[in-house]
Amino acid sequence: MYSNILIPISKDSNMKVIVDFLNNFLSPDGRITLLYVITSDRLPISAMEWRRAMKIVSEAHVLSIERGLEINYLVKNAPSVVQGILKEAAEAKYDLIFFASSTYGKRRDSIFGSKIDEVVRRAAVETVVFRYIEEEPVKYGRILVPTSGYKNALRAVRMAEALAARSKGEITIMYVGPKKSDADKVLDPLLDDIKKKGVKAQKIFMKGSPADMVLEEAGKGYDLMMIGATERPYYYQFLLGSTADRLVREAPCPVLMVKTVG
């Protein structure tokens, strides 16, 4: 659970998806801050920019009342959107930066969009990016979590556990590699821990290309896939790594990516 969440928003933000999703992770006394960054070094900002910001804030305000959530609103100017987000994240004690996007990355050097990718790379705060599918309801009945045991993927497992517990869903943790013994070392402790918390779960081991195997499994009716950002510096230029790049771009279901800290 998170107590202080920062959500950078834009004119394309789907506030209903964002608020409803984060309601699963917000602590009872937690708060959400919506940040709209206007790219300008000068004040006052233009009337057009102000109206655009207020339109998004108004929509979020209505949803916050309906959901009974405490939401704060910030409109700030900065030389760039990325600088504005990172500056706010550094000045306040947020425990999560959350992005939601329905955009499928088309360029090899940009997965969720260049601004989001850069914030994820540079932020010193845990960061989550949720790629949902526009005009499709977000469900959590069946959650797939591919993992190789690294900390970001393990954090994804914990978030999946929280979602499944609230929605009475089921988690499938998956390992792709050459040896079943390696899979058992990673998956068995996770499976035991998840089941102890009353969440239905199962494990899957497959041999072959990690991306191909995970995408094949994801096509079997999963509602959501949750993955960790890469922790290997060689792949960091691509944000997620070569395997996870394909998962974000090609998965038939929504994908949540998490990069933790510490």
TrEMBL record:
Residues in UspA domain copies: 1-131, 140-259
Pfam families per record: Usp
CDD domains: USP-like (cd00293)
Gene3D superfamilies with a match to the protein in the record: 3.40.50.12370
Family from the record: Belongs to the universal stress protein A family.
Name the record gives this protein: Universal stress protein UspA and related nucleotide-binding protein
Organism listed in the record: Methanocella conradii (strain DSM 24694 / JCM 17849 / CGMCC 1.5162 / HZ254)
